[in-house]
Automatic annotation (TrEMBL):
<dbReference type="InterPro" id="IPR000836">
    <property type="entry name" value="PRTase_dom"/>
</dbReference>
<dbReference type="GO" id="GO:0006166">
    <property type="term" value="P:purine ribonucleoside salvage"/>
</dbReference>
<keyword id="KW-0660">Purine salvage</keyword>
<dbReference type="InterPro" id="IPR029057">
    <property type="entry name" value="PRTase-like"/>
</dbReference>
<dbReference type="InterPro" id="IPR050120">
    <property type="entry name" value="Adenine_PRTase"/>
</dbReference>
<dbReference type="GO" id="GO:0005829">
    <property type="term" value="C:cytosol"/>
</dbReference>
<protein>
    <recommendedName>
        <fullName>adenine phosphoribosyltransferase</fullName>
        <ecNumber>2.4.2.7</ecNumber>
    </recommendedName>
</protein>
<comment type="pathway">
    <text>Purine metabolism; AMP biosynthesis via salvage pathway; AMP from adenine: step 1/1.</text>
</comment>
<keyword id="KW-0963">Cytoplasm</keyword>
<feature type="domain" description="Phosphoribosyltransferase">
    <location>
        <begin position="90"/>
        <end position="204"/>
    </location>
</feature>
<comment type="similarity">
    <text>Belongs to the purine/pyrimidine phosphoribosyltransferase family.</text>
</comment>
<dbReference type="GO" id="GO:0003999">
    <property type="term" value="F:adenine phosphoribosyltransferase activity"/>
</dbReference>
<dbReference type="Pfam" id="PF00156">
    <property type="entry name" value="Pribosyltran"/>
</dbReference>
<keyword id="KW-0328">Glycosyltransferase</keyword>
<comment type="subunit">
    <text>Homodimer.</text>
</comment>
<dbReference type="InterPro" id="IPR005764">
    <property type="entry name" value="Ade_phspho_trans"/>
</dbReference>
<keyword id="KW-0808">Transferase</keyword>
Length: 230
């Protein structure tokens, strides 16, 4: 995924910039697209007031000026260090997908690998990695997608997904949804049925622009902010 800057003015007048692994922003969806493209934050979908969401948010570290000046990086490695918050994250996804007859949890390289296997174990599904080029040793199929400054590619092992298998796609953060859309296309090319995409963090500014080719998106929390500029 290519680098992208998203700015937001916070109450003290400082500009927060989020460093996101995203694709070039697609054109706004039509009214028909909006009916098909659904973005659901957990708090708005049955978990309003759930203390687990606050614990997840608080466990995510904001690293100012990384990887360069002005960028507020959403660091999920601290979430992994907090075993309770990490368990909350996995449990919420498991509770959502346990009864949806999901047989595949597909994780996008690399941070989707941090959550996908645990979710797969929790719902009794197999984990399928979607990797960058030349990382998988066997025969693969590829799906290219456009970045803001070029192109990238996801690859899938041939035979990892059987026709008719129901799948979800997992990643850590979503902005425009271009990479998730590429993952959906890749799985559907081999006959998989993508039920939903899911991310830990979702940027609220792009709710109406998230292009997931008709697939719903489930998000736990919004990006964290910092109280002061450094």
């Amino acid at each position: 995924m290519g680098p992208h800057l998203s700015t937001e003015q916070n109450p003290n007048g400082c500009t927060t910039l989020f460093f996101l692994r995203v694709n070039a922003t697609p054109p706004p969806p039509t009214s028909i697209d909006r009916k098909k493209e659904r973005k659901m934050f957990a708090e708005e979908n049955g978990l309003k007031g759930d203390p687990r969401l606050q614990a997840i948010t608080q466990a995510i570290r904001v690293v100012p000026h990384f990887p360069k000046q002005g960028i507020m990086f959403q660091d999920i490695t601290t979430l992994m260090l907090d075993h309770k918050a990490f368990k909350h994250t996995v449990d919420i996804f498991v509770d959502r997908y346990r009864d949806m007859h999901i047989s595949i949890v597909a994780g996008i390289e690399a941070r989707g690998f941090m959550f996908g296997p645990s979710i797969a174990l929790g719902i009794g599904a197999k984990f399928v990695p979607l990797r960058k080029p030349r990382k998988l040793p066997g025969e693969v199929i590829s799906e290219k997608y456009v970045l803001e400054y070029g192109t990238d590619c996801l690859e899938l092992h041939v035979g990892a997904v059987q026709p008719g298998e129901r799948a979800i796609v997992i990643d850590d953060l979503v902005a425009t949804g271009g990479t998730l859309s590429a993952a959906v296309k890749l799985l559907e090319r081999v006959g998989g049925e993508v039920v939903e995409c899911a991310c830990v963090i979702g940027v609220p500014d792009v709710k109406g622009q998230c292009r997931l080719i008709g697939k719903p998106l489930y998000v736990l929390v919004e990006p964290r902010e910092v109280d002061e500029c450094f």
